[in-house]
Design brief:
The chain is built from four helices and two strands; from the N terminus they run βαβααα. It has 93 residues and is mainly alpha-helical.
């Protein structure tokens, strides 16, 4: 299993080292400190923002409902998620 995450200090503590020791098949790859072009999540947020553009929710609750709906739609679409990975500069495995 490969986990890719940012280079935050929270990801380097004793608990993480213990997890790696317990699961030797777990491979951790860190992004540089600031590298949005490598992060497929940026594509997910870009698609969600595009879907929400020009909307005018009447409340914060309605905004969250629309956002959850769009993120749920993306979650159910392997093709869109693959596109986010391919659209990033992340090297393919």
């Amino acid at each position: 299993m490969i986990v890719i995450w940012d280079n935050g200090t929270i990801h380097g503590g004793e608990a993480i080292r213990a997890l790696q020791a317990r699961y030797p098949r777990l491979h951790l790859n860190r992004f540089p400190s600031y590298a949005p072009e490598l992060n497929p999540d940026e594509g997910v947020w870009q698609l969600a923002k595009r879907a929400l553009a020009n909307g005018r929710p009447d409340s914060q609750r309605e905004l969250f409902r629309h956002l959850r709906s769009q993120l749920s739609r993306l979650r159910r679409s392997p093709a869109l998620l693959r596109g986010c990975v391919r659209g990033s500069d992340l090297p393919l495995f």
